[in-house]
Amino acid sequence: MALAAPDKVSLFAEGAVSTLRLIAYLTLAMIVMVIDHRGAYLERLRTFSSAVVEPVYRFAALPSDVARAGRLAIATQSHLVDENRSLREALLLAQVRLNRMSALSAQNDRLKKLLDVQNELGLGVQLARLINIDLDPFRHRIVLDAGAAQFIEVGQPVLDAHGIMGQIVEVLPRTSVAMLVTDPSHAIPVMIERTGLRTIAYGTGAIDRLQLPNVPMSADIKVGDSLVTSGLGGRFPVGFPVGEILEISNDESGMFAAAIARPAAALDRSGEVLLLQDLPQPMGPPAPVAPTEQKPLEGASSFQEGVQAQ
Known about the structure:
alpha+beta, six-stranded antiparallel β-barrel
């Protein structure tokens, strides 16, 4: 059975009508746009349409916004964590440097005081540093970083910028051991600076105490008097600060007074010390000075020749 061929005329007519309808719609749209542009008659309609369509846009863009916000939050948190870690490291480094600078400043002050003492003494001294300390109740000793290689000898006085600390009792090749004045087995001849009274100061085993037993009851001694080395025994030169009287009381027998003194040296704080060197004292009268021949001045010789000629 053969199919009937389509009517070409009717199809063409239908297409022409559609085209005319499209042109009419476009013309109407252009007229409406021109009228709206001129008078803004459709402003409310556009506003209402935007209000209706905007939630649809937002809902459609919601997954993308959530993903972008998540990536931003993760990136921001990671950046903040890294920045916080960097700031903590910088703060820690700054604190370490500040503490180091404070320690160096304190050490510089101590060395300056020691240098001032060295310049004021006019004696032979040698600088040494503490490398160990032993402060149990029965031994008050320190280890210094100078020994026989630096010509340290047993018996050399040790002092800091404030006063006598002790004396060398053991010398090793590169280090030496000093006994502090507060060691229970240490004694040092002293005198009251104000009156010149001589006595002995003994160590008590306490880092901040010296004792002066058997002081005569009639002795002129007061709280606050300064103790200095008397020079007796030839171990410590005369005139170095040793301590200060804190309290005075009677001993158990009631026949003598006993005093407690505070050491002048910073025994528990000094990190650098000075070692006094023995200087030989000249014996006998000074050697005679040989006379030197002085050449007379030209004016003087001319004057003498003139006198002889007269």
